[in-house]
Specification:
This protein is α/β, with parallel strands linked by helices. It is built from 8 helices and 7 strands, in the order H-H-E-E-H-E-H-E-H-E-H-E-E-H-H. It has a single domain, classed as Glycerol-3-phosphate (1)-acyltransferase.
């Protein structure tokens, strides 16, 4: 209970304190979008690190060496918790944008920050709009921005390791030529979803898999790149689960 209250207070304080910073970012953006982006991403990473600390997330990382240092990538991540974004975003190097469901666009203050960070909002019921989002994401990748997407389409609330992946998400990599980095997370829901509405300290596990280069795959794997990536991540998920059980 105390941890939950502390996190809630911190979020409220941040909402107030960052209002002047938001205005400063807007002003800076008139003269330099790159500088505005660095300021915005830096502020968001600091906030997420604070939330991660206050929430008691003990992060066990592996595979950071698999993230290319000199090019944009497509991060493909499984999704079980609101904390997935909070914990991973402050780990991603360089400029990274997200693809989120359209409902997030309706949340005041948060939506503004997401837009400043070049986040894209996907309407899962509108095929044409979805295509526009994918094309916009491809343009971002070509401009040097990595993209993170949750191809399950929603948070997994089932007992299955992962829901089926939507293949359309992978067009970002196939059309731009960027590497795919599988981001496999385990035990993230133990921070919040397993005992809503309370936040509890917990060990969480994140693995960055080896880059998948679409052009190097055989024809069948290219055709079903979502299933191919999912199979790799399910294997990693089981390894992380075993690691957690053996601690």
């Amino acid at each position: 209970m105390i941890r939950t209250i502390i996190v809630a207070i911190e979020i409220l304080i941040t909402a107030v304190v960052t209002l002047p910073y938001m205005l400063l970012c807007l002003l800076v953006g008139v003269f330099s979008m790159k500088l505005r982006d660095r300021m915005s991403i830096g502020a968001m990473r600091v906030e997420f690190k604070i939330l991660r600390f206050l929430s008691g997330a003990k992060v066990h990382l592996s595979g950071l060496e698999n993230i290319p240092k000199d090019e944009a990538v497509l991060y493909i991540a499984n999704h079980r918790s609101f904390y997935d974004i909070i914990v991973t975003y402050c780990i991603f190097p360089g400029f990274t944008s997200m693809i989120s469901k359209k409902e997030w666009e309706k949340i005041p203050f948060l939506a503004w920050w997401m837009k400043v960070l070049h986040n894209l909002f996907l309407d899962r019921d509108d095929i044409k709009q979805g295509l526009k989002v994918i094309l916009a994401a491809i343009d971002l990748v070509k401009g040097g921005y990595s993209i993170c997407i949750y191809p399950e389409g929603t948070r997994n609330r089932t007992e299955d390791d992962m829901l089926p992946f939507h293949e359309g998400s992978f067009k970002i990599a196939t059309k731009s030529g960027c590497p795919i980095i599988p981001v496999t997370m385990y035990n993230m829901s133990s921070l919040l979803e397993d005992h809503l509405p309370f936040i509890k300290s917990s060990d969480v596990y994140i693995d960055f898999g080896k880059p998948i280069i679409v052009g190097e795959l055989d024809a069948e794997d290219k055709k079903h790149i979502g299933a191919y990536t999912r199979d790799i991540m399910i294997g990693t998920y089981q390894k992380l689960k075993e690691e957690a059980q053996n601690r």
